[in-house]
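retry 2 of 3: previous attempt timed out while embedding zinc ion. Reduced batch size to 1 and resubmitted. Inputs unchanged:
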Amino acid sequence: MKSIDKIHPKKIIPAYFVLLTLITLSILNEIRIFYIPINIPGRQMAITIPPFGIFIEDQFKNEPNIPCSILNHEKVHWEQFRKMGLVSFYFNYFKSYFKSGRIINWMEEEARNPCKTGKLITTY
Ligand SMILES: [Zn+2]
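retry 2 succeeded.
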């Protein structure tokens, strides 16, 4: 077995960066919800921007925690991001957005599903 003083720093530094990257990615993966005092343009009331978080207009801060809530809808988008990964999330979202529009694209329909089924996203 090698003693610690015999391990070359060139081998320790990449391992440190791998560890740091893994820690950073796990922090970025955590859900963050921000209530913002800004009117999001259009009829949109909230937006999920992975890996930064979920941004909801602050007028909806006291909205009840129900399946049809804005937060529950956005949590589905966060789940989509967690399942697909960052690049695939944006790729799939914009692909379906340009194919079917903002309202009827499959990722939005999936996010509206809990409202129909009564499923509350409680994993976060
Ligand atoms: Zn949506």
